[in-house]
Specification:
6 helices; about 300 residues; 6-stranded antiparallel β-sheet; elongated; Rossmann fold; Tumour Suppressor Smad4
Length: about 300
């Protein structure tokens, strides 16, 4: 890997607050950086949910953030860092870790490359999502994976009206609808039969979930397109941005999805082709499927 960035001088380290091993390893890497690279760089750390981390980003962005956890930790860290254009390197402490760049037992081996700037930045498109209620109350999110609308507790299809750039597309009758980035294409969208996309592609995916007697194919849109979604169902309908707790929506609510002004920045030590070989390796093992269930 050719050096593509300057050597980082100010480094933030975060960890998942509910993983004791993640905090332990994070503190080890902070000590290693501050000792081994004294005079070149300074590292400091926080739990990912510590408000002090966000405040530190706002005061003076880091040259690099290293985060310990799983894919959810990587998602949250990138969403916090994206507005400040800070690259994030993930060290896997979870069960899957598809988004993470370094395995738990490899960080000492990879640390010199990180500190020398021998890595590239993989820019990933994010989505700007806005929920507009009937009283014109607006809630906004910047999401990295997807925005999902689905049925509630009643297991019945819902009717979902979709417009693209203010032009009517179709009314889906389905269990739900996923609007996804290329990053999200390997998550829920893939499980629903959507295409697998190279993560740096700047496209918006629209994927129906279990469609019935309606348009059943996924659609790949340009990054400049705007998707508007409304539920026209009599049944309970739930909306969730990036896997957050679902919220009820009704026929008077509108969800607008477009490209975000921000991009997530992933630190990559390998070349671009590594995505495909790495993806196949992960698809050949599903740790969740092998977990034992106690009844």
């Amino acid at each position: 890997m050719n050096q593509t960035t300057k050597k980082p001088e100010r480094i933030g380290v975060t960890w998942h607050p509910h993983l004791a091993a993640a905090e332990e390893e994070a503190k080890k890497i902070i000590e290693e950086i501050n000792t081994r690279f004294h005079g070149q760089a300074v590292a400091e750390g926080w739990s990912l949910y510590d408000e002090a981390f966000r405040e530190s980003l706002e005061r003076r962005p880091f040259d690099l953030v290293i985060t310990f956890g799983g894919d959810g930790t990587m998602l949250r860290t990138n969403k916090l860092c994206a507005p400040f254009e800070v690259p994030v390197c993930g060290i896997n402490m979870g069960s899957f870790g598809f988004m993470m760049e370094i395995a738990k037992n490899q960080w000492r081996e990879k640390l010199p490359a990180l500190m020398n700037g021998d890595w590239r930045i993989e820019k990933r498109m994010m989505l700007h999502v806005e929920l507009v209620r009937k009283n014109n109350e607006r809630t906004r999110w910047e999401v990295l994976n997807d925005a999902v609308i689905g049925h509630g507790s009643k297991l019945r299809p819902i009717r979902i009206n979709v417009r693209i750039n203010e032009n009517y597309l179709t009314d889906y009758v389905a269990d739900g609808l996923i609007v996804s980035t290329a990053t999200g294409s390997t998550a829920y969208a893939m499980a629903a039969g959507g295409p697998i996309m190279e993560p740096e592609l700047r496209n918006i995916l629209v994927i129906p979930v279990a469609p019935h007697l309606c348009l059943e194919r996924g659609i790949v849109l340009d990054e400049n397109d705007v998707v508007e979604i409304r539920s026209s169902s009599e049944h309970e309908t739930i909306f969730s941005p990036d896997g957050q707790d679902g919220m009820m929506i009704d026929e008077s609510d509108t969800i607008s999805v477009s490209a975000s002004e921000f991009s997530a920045r992933y630190v990559r030590l390998e070349g671009k082709g590594f995505f495909y070989s790495n993806f196949i390796q992960y698809m050949q093992r599903n740790p969740s499927a092998n977990r034992k269930t106690t009844i």
